[in-house]
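Q: Structure tokens for this one, please.
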Amino acid sequence: MITQIKGLHHVTSMAADAQENNAFFTRLLGLRRVKKTVNFDAPDVYHLYYGDETGSAGTIMTYFPFPHIVKGRPGSGEVSETAFSVPEGSLGYWRDRLTLAGVGGLEEVEQFGEKRLRFLGPDGDGFALVETSGDPRAPYARGPVPAETGIHGFRGVTMRLRDGAATAELLKFMGYEEVAREGTMTRLAIRDGNGADLVDLEVLPDAAPARQGAGSVHHVAFAVEDRAAQLAVRKALVDAGAHVTPVIDRDYFWAIYFRTPGGVLFEIATNEPGFARDEDVAHLGEALKIPAQHAHLRERIEQLLVPITD
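A: Here is the predicted structure, written as tokens:
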């Protein structure tokens, strides 16, 4: 069994409009934009990262805003909901804030004994705010949301699958353990993780396959401390029969990828070197950062990208 994974590192999704996406996460949800860069494979498209003060692993929501992307179709074989941890007693504040902003899909539920406020992102993305007691992670304190009600980071993700057995076995191999069941949901957790350490599997045998597009999660990344831990995880996965990519340098972390039995794309990402490798912490996310292989295209890229108004 793999022991190096500590929970989620980041969740990467797709959007239709960079400005709308930036405003939603920074002005409404109160996260910090910690990096403004471009897609490695499509450098004419932004890659935006949002998180806590420094972009700690387990807090980072990232987006590829493709201007002409079709809208995604929810279904099986995808991450259907991304949940954020918020302080106990703060859901009333968030319900009022999101209602005032006209956010859709608002629904208060209780799941696995936790109070959860569900809502939709600008492209129909599925999100939830979960009241969590004792989360030691500090919310971003210099945004529009007061720290006492702010987002600590991820709580976890929900994957919607037609058959959850093989994915559950994979997650157990990755260090998760089953901790609860409720209706169609099975909860798995990393003990003593990084706070973003829950995965819920929702099994719906008759669900139609999802179609990726705006509002869809592209992949979910799990955190390991460093490259040595990542190589150990990669070897274990390959030895178990997974088809895993070579290690890829993503500037702010190293990454490996593989497809799960349920169809969800997994990544294992390192906590090193972090988002301060090319910007001071005080100025994270301000300048447009271009990966080295696309540096010669900077002038062209800047002409193509629509400026984001903060």
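A few notes: The two ends are 44 Å apart (CA to CA). The domain at 8-304 is CATH 3.10.180.10 (2,3-Dihydroxybiphenyl 1,2-Dioxygenase; domain 1).
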